[in-house]
Amino acid sequence: MKKVITVLKGDGIGPEIVDEAIKVLGRIAEKYSHEFVYKYVDIGGCAIDKYGVPITDEGMEQCKNCDSVLLGAVGGPKWDNVDPSVRPEKALLAVRHELGLFANLRPTKLFPQLADASPLKQSIIGNGIDLLIVRELTGGIYFGKRNTAEENGEAFASDEMKYYAHEIERIGRVAFESAKKRRGKVSSVDKANVLDSSRLWRKIMHKLGEEYKDVEYEDVLVDNTAMQLIKNPSRFDVVVTENMFGDILSDEASMLTGSIGMMPSASLSEGTLGMYEPIHGSAPDIAGTDMANPLGTILSAAMMLRYSFDMANEADDIENAVNAVLDEGYRTADIMRDGMKKVGCREMGTLVTEKI
Ligand code: IPM
Ligand code: MN
Predict the structure, then answer these.
(1) One domain for residues 170 and 240
(2) In terms of domains, do 251 and 221 share one?
(3) Among 47-56, 120-129, 296-305, the least confident range
(4) Under a CB-based contact definition with an 8 Å cutoff, are residues 249 and 241 in contact?
(5) Whether residue 173 is found in the same domain as residue 242
(6) Is residue 183 located within the same domain as residue 248?
(7) Which residues are within 8 A (CB) of 102 and not within 5 positions of it... i.e. 6 or more apart?
(8) Residues 293 and 249 in one domain
């Protein structure tokens, strides 16, 4: 099969980790006689430096007209003080919005080999951690009205958190459908004891809960969820929540897996077009040092094959290869422990490639 992939390497460690994912995809293409065509587009700080905007109109068009998008990471201290309208993150939000990527899947899985890299005690990890965070990605406070102004001589700023019923329903369906293919439980996370947007969220989730009778359902308040993730992570299967809660909780959950460097994500639209990226940032402090962990990006490429290209065997191959390399004791710096074999970003990519 021939597939066109738009590649957004971005800033910091973005280019290094994406190169390793492409190395792995190259091996998959060879093994299964696929043709992957890569179209490179600048995004984030590097695009600001070149064009004065974090993504150009042509770049955005390229993202819309392909089979899927693979992203590294954007941003860095160099662009912290640029005008908010052209910040690197702005481009990421624009791509999510323009491509209609409303469903962000963040699987949080502890590879058993990394149990000692997780800060949680073995007694809490128990039989393992395997949950799926389903984050709403194109609504809520990220896309509400913003205002910075002055009132009676005093500065103020506000950000609106607004949800339409249809936005809640469609992300809810993604969660319930995912739960059916997993352990059959949905935990819907909100702040319905305070926020109107959460009360609407809960009402719609309850309706879906009645429709999906075979799926167990619970409401959990967001603050309590933050606690439960540490206290009893195995109670969760699918966690569905609004945009900002999902952003925060997924960083927290990533630590259960030992390192944020391990976590992939998929951002899906109503069709097959999706964007795939590790959940971590651009880590400018280690950029160019070959220290980054490429596994989150490599596992994101596996999600791309599974969700956008319907290539389940190919995706399994990548995931099994990652597993095998961890089994053999290879570790990047972030997951390094005594007695393991420390490797850099490039070598990790090569090891995974060779296992396929
Ligand atoms: C993420 C990131 C982004 C977000 C930033 C870079 C805008 O933190 O993908 O989780 O907040 O969504
Ligand atoms: Mn985040």
Answers:
(1) yes
(2) yes
(3) 120-129
(4) yes
(5) yes
(6) yes
(7) 136, 137, 138, 139, 167, 170, 171, 268, 269, 270
(8) no
- Please name which ligand lies nearest the alpha carbon of 143: 1
Q: What is the structure's pLDDT at 126?
A: 84
* End-to-end CA gap in the chain: 18
**What residues are annotated to the active site?**
142, 191, 223, 247, 251
CA distance 205 to 172: 6
Phi and psi at residue 80, in whole multiples of 5°?
Answer: -65, -30
- Using the atom order of ligand 1, give the atom closest to the CA of residue 244: 11
For the stretch 148-200, pLDDT in tens is: 999 999 999 999 999 999 999 999 999 999 999 999 999 999 999 999 999 99
- Point out the ligand 1 atom lying closest to the alpha carbon of residue 247: 10
Indicate if ligand 1 lies below 6 Å from the C-beta of 133: no
Q: How confident is the model at residue 84 (pLDDT cuts 50, 70, 90)?
A: confident
Print the domain residue range for 355: 1-110+260-356
Ligand 1 contact via 251 beta carbon (within 6 Å): no
Cβ of 89 less than 6 Å from ligand 1:
yes
The residue whose C-alpha atom lies closest to atom 7 belonging to ligand 1 is 89
How many angstroms is it from 32 CA to the middle of ligand 1?
Answer: 34
Q: Tell me: do 242 and 264 sit in the same domain.
A: no
8 Å CB contact between 348 and 21: no
Single out the residue in 199, 230, 256 at which a domain terminates: 256
Proximal ligand: closest to the CA of 137: 1
In tens, the pLDDT along 30-53 reads 999 999 999 999 999 999 999 999
What percentage of the chain exceeds 70 in pLDDT? 100
Last residue in a domain, options 214, 232, 256: 256
CATH number at residue 44: 3.40.718.10
Can you give the pLDDT at residue 128?
A: 87
Q: Are residues 250 and 264 in the same domain?
A: no
- Return the ligand number nearest the Cα of 94: 1
Residue 279 CB–ligand 1 contact under 6 Å: yes
